Amino acid sequence: MAGNDHVDMATSGADRTADRLSAVPGIRRAPSPKLQQFMLTRFLDPDTCAALMALIDGDARPSTIADPNGDEAFRTSSTCDLDHRVPIVAAVNRRLHDLTGIPLEYGEPLQGQRYDVGEEFKAHTDYFDPGGADWETYCAIPGQRSWTLMIYLNEPPAGGATRFLATGKMHQPETGKLIAWNNIRPDGTPNPDTLHHGMKVRKGRKYIITKWFRERPWPWAEGELA
User: Fold this and answer.
1) Model confidence pLDDT, tens digit, residues 171-219
2) What sequence ranges are listed for the domain Fe2OG dioxygenase (predicted)?
3) Pair 130, 190: CB distance under 8 Å
4) Residue 100 to residue 19: CA distance in whole angstroms
5) H-helix or E-strand containing 88?
6) Does residue 159 contact residue 115 with C-beta atoms inside 8 Å?
7) How far apart are CA 94 and CA 172, in angstroms?
8) What superfamily in CATH does domain 17-214 come from?
9) CB pairs under 8 A, 24+ apart, for 136-139?
């Protein structure tokens, strides 16, 4: 674990992302000292959201977790790795990098998730456990996750909220709404106050896309960032 529990936020510019987000017109910041969290409604238009949902439906697979904990029902959604060579995916990806000020090479490929009735992702953090069994697999090259940006693509008829346990804040799905939060504190240590629960969908389906940013450049295939 030595050396894994402190993240260099400056190299990627992630240490300046909170200030950058604060200056975005219409954005709201959560009134809590426990985490840096921002909300921006209508970040994506309905047509873009619909196109992304179609891509997710076309290539969804069962979701997994990095360090299995023995709970087979811990994460029951479906996941899709979106192809960044598809123009609409590339455009959304670039907008997210522009929003954060973090260069393209520090971002994971954009990912989509789909939740059917009864599916959820129990309380978890997005950063990797520095002492976890899979640290070397997921973090040896790109390092830790610094920020998460998540966008709701639709509004299921019931359920599907995202609840942050440390603040009690419940984010209800709204088409095109973006939520951003720091996985790492300004001092470079993981922030356990980002623990959040993707709650069960009660009616319909929920779709989201998620963008994670890393401490060091992500080893994408040649041509991926073109």
Assistant:
1) 999 999 999 999 999 999 999 999 999 999 999 999 999 999 999 998 7
2) 106-215
3) yes
4) 9
5) helix 87-100
6) no
7) 25
8) q2cbj1_9rhob like domain (2.60.120.620)
9) 137/66, 138/66, 139/4
Contact status, residue 210 vs residue 148, Cβ threshold 8 Å: yes
3-state secondary structure of 5: coil
Q: What is the DSSP letter of 62?
A: E
The beta-strand segments (E) located in the chain are 28-29, 37-40, 61-62, 78-81, 111-115, 121-124, 145-152, 158-159, 162-164, 169-171, 178-182, 196-198, 201-203, 206-214
Question: Per residue in 166-203, is it b (16+ CB within 10 Å) or e — as a string?
Answer: ebebebebebbbbbbbbbbbeebebbebbbbbbbbbee
Query: How does the average pLDDT of the chain come out, rounded?
Result: 93
Separation between Cα atoms, residue 198 and residue 196, nearest integer Å: 7
Tokens of 131: 């002492």
Q: What is the DSSP letter of 221?
A: P
